[in-house]
Amino acid sequence: MTEFAYYYLNFEVMAQYLPTLLVGLRITAVLALLVTVIGIGLGLILAVLRSFRIRLLTAAIVVVVDILRSIPPLMLLIFAYFALPYVGLTLPSMTAAVLCLSLILAAFAEEIFWACILSVDKGQWEAARATGMSFLAILFLVILPQAIRMGIPDLTNRTIAITKATSLASAIAVPELINRSMSAQSIAASPSPLMLGAALYLVLFFPLVVGSRLLEKRIRGVAR
Amino acid sequence: MLELDKLYKSYGQNTVLKGVSLSVGAGDVVCIIGPSGSGKSTLLRCINRLEEPDSGAILMDGLDLMSPKTDIAKARREIGMVFQGFNLYPHMTALSNVTLALRHVLRVPKREAIDRGQEALDQVGLSDKSGAFPGELSGGQQQRVGIARALVMKPKIMLFDEPTSALDPELVGEVLSVMRRLSDDGITMVVVSHEMGFAQEVASEIVFMEGGHIVEQGVPAEVFRQPKQDRTAQFLSRIRG
Could you give the CA distance from residue A131 to residue A205 in angstroms, rounded to a whole number? Predict the structure, then answer.
C-alpha cells in the first residue's frame, strides 16, 4: 500500500508538476470549447443546407459526413498534421487538432440534427405553410427549435465523447493535459502526474456530464 | 369568391379527385361530407395547394392559384386552415402560436401583433390561456387556438379539415360552437366534417363526395331529407346508424 501511494499518489511530485498540468488543463479546456462550438455550429449549418434538398449539395454533405464518421479521429489528426505539409499546407498542431475534431463532431452533429429535422411532424410544416410562411421562416422558427431540443441528449453524448478525444491531440504535440502529464511522468519517473492529470480531467468534465444530464432532464420536462 | 374547376389529383395509380368543380360564395359555409377515401380532405388541401392538383383551376377572387406566376405563399395568408391534428407549435405559447405569422409574414409590429393575437384568442374563448403551451391545453382548447391562429390573419376564407375528428366526444361541442359563431359573423368556410348535426344546422350548402366525384350538392334540408342520389341516401343512413 505504501508503495502504491509512493508511486501513484506522491503529493510531492504532484505539487511539483501541478503548474505545468494546469497550463495543459487550460489548453484542453480551450480545445474542448472550440471543438464544441465549431463542431455543433458547423453541424447545424450542414443540416440546414441539407434541408434545401439540392441534390448535388446533399450528396456532397452525405459523402463527407460518412467519411468523417468512419475515420478514427487519431488517423485524421495524424494525417492533418504530418501529411498535409507535403502538399504545402502546414498547420500549427493546435489548429490541426481543432480542425479535425471539429469536423468529426460536425459530421455527427449534422446527422443528429438532420434526423431530428426529419422527425418533426409533417403537420408542423403544413400548418406554417398554410399561414403563408416562407421555407426559411418555417425552418428557423418552427422546425429547428423543436429539432434542436430533440437532438440535445444525443448531442451532449457525442460532444462529451469528442471533447474527451482532445487527449488524442497529444499525439500531434499539442501540449494539452495528457501530453503534459505523460511528459511529467517520464521526467519524474513517477506515474503520480498521470493521476493528477486524471483528477484534472474529472474536474473539467464531471461538471459537464452532470450539466448535460440536468439539461436533458429539463428538455424532457418541457417537450411533453 | 372561390371557384374550383375540374380538379384532378392522383397518387400513383390511385386517382383521388376526378374532375371536381365547386363554387363557394362569400359568406357561404360549405360542408363536404362523404365516406373516408372519397377525396374530401384532398380537395380541401388542394385549395391552398398543400396538395398539388394535377390539373384544373383554382380561382380565388379572380386570382388563379394554380398559375406559376401566383405567389402561393402570399395567397395563403388569406386562406386560413384548421387541421384535424391541430398542428400547434409545441414549443410556443398559445399567444405565440397565434401571432407567429402576423409577426413574420405580415410584419405586424410586436405590440400590435400581441393585441390582435389576444383578440383572436378572445374570439375563441381562450383569452386566459394565452401563456399556456399546447401540451398544457385540452384537445378542444388546442383546436380553438388552431382556429385563432387562422382567424388572426383575417382570411377571406377558412378551411377546416375534420376539425373535431381527433377530439374526445365531450370536447367536440366547444369547437363546433366556435365555428358556429364564425359562420354567424359571416366568415366564408369550407368544412370537411363528419358532424352531421353541425352540417345540417350551420351549412349553407352540403357537398356529398364519393370516389373522387361530387355526387350531390344542395342546401342541407334537401340533401339530408330528400337526397336525389341513392349513394347519398345510403351514406346518410349508414352514418345515422
Answer: 45
pLDDT in tens, B195-238: 999 999 999 999 999 999 999 999 999 999 999 999 999 999 98
For residue range B123-167, list pLDDT tens digits in order.
Answer: 999 999 999 999 999 999 999 999 999 999 999 999 999 999 999
- Mark out chain B residues that contact chain A at CB-CB < 8 A: 48, 50, 73-77, 79-81, 83, 85, 87-91, 100-101, 104-105, 133, 135, 146, 149-150, 153
User: In this structure, is residue A91 part of a structural domain?
Assistant: yes
Do A127 and B91 count as a contact with CB atoms less than 8 A apart?
Answer: no
User: Quick one: CA torsion of B163, B168, B173, B179, rounded to 10 degrees?
Assistant: -10
Sheet holding B157-161, edge to edge: B79-82, B157-161, B188-192, B29-33, B205-210, B213-218
Gap between the terminal Cα atoms of chain B:
36
B76 vs A contacts (CB less than 8 Å): 129-132
For A109-166, what is each residue's pLDDT tens digit?
A: 999 999 999 999 999 999 999 999 999 999 999 999 999 999 999 999 999 999 889 9
Residue A14 lies in a domain: no
A152 contacts chain B (CB < 8 A)? no
Which tens digits make up the pLDDT trace of A39-83? 999 999 999 999 999 999 999 999 999 999 999 999 999 999 999
DSSP H helices, chain B, are: 40-47, 72-76, 94-104, 110-123, 139-151, 169-184, 196-202, 220, 230-240
Q: Residue A4 falls within a domain, yes or no?
A: no
Residue A1: pLDDT band (50, 70, 90) is low
B32 neighbors B207 (Cβ within 8 angstroms): yes
CATH code assigned at A213: 1.10.3720.10
Q: Give me the domain span that covers residue A26.
A: 21-223
Q: Quick check: is A3 in a domain? A: no
HSE-CB of B179 using CA atoms within 13 angstroms: 35
Whether residue A137 lies within 8 A of chain B, CB to CB, comes out as yes
Distance of CA B214 to the CA centre of its chain: 18
Amino acid residing at A217: K
pLDDT at A224: 44
Count of Cβ atoms closer than 10 Å to residue B62 Cβ: 7
ipTM of this complex > 0.95?
Answer: no
